[in-house]
Amino acid sequence: MSEQLRELTRAEEEIMQVLWDKDRAFVKEVIEVLPVPKPAYNTVSTIIRILEQKGFVAHQAFGKTYQYFPVVSKEEYRKFVAGKLMSGYFDNSVGNMLSFFVKEQQVDLKEADELLKMIEELKNK
Fold it and tell me: How many C-beta neighbours within 10 Å does residue 57 have?
């Protein structure tokens, strides 16, 4: 993607998750898979149009209705968010981030060891 990615709001990200999963969807199809309480049609439609303005989504017209599809891949956005997390909270240090997750018990020591082995293998390539 040529233009600079921007962080999504929680609502925008929730809708992008649906579009990434479905690949293409009309507003009513997005609403169908959103959790209860279901947002109003106009709310979802507005958020999708904002996503389109931000360059995350495009559409194909079918008469008066639009089918939307992602322009930014989930992988592209994941890299962007991970980079922002690393730079903003962990001083661009994988070690600092890994240490945080181990201390918070979100990664056990076996997983941490496997991650370190993967990093070592990548360095040796």
Answer: 22
